[in-house]
Predict the structure.
Amino acid sequence: MNSHYQNYVTAQNNPLNNVGVVGEAETGPTSLSKADFETQVNNDLTNAVNTIRADFSVQPCGQAYAGYDATCTFQGYVNCTF
């Protein structure tokens, strides 16, 4: 399916991007200071989150507006007023 949610799921299910997997895998050598370790963990988690956000922000079907179904077939214009 083509959707923001599907893009999120695909990115989050990749162990390289999965925030839980990345966070739990963090270990630091005993020679690493607490501040350096915190910076390393923060950087690794930020990279994972940024990858997920980038994949999530892709417009499904390449369209900037609604009206397409999950197979990228145009279904008509959305009648919405604000």
Observations:
- The chain is about 50% helix and 0% strand.
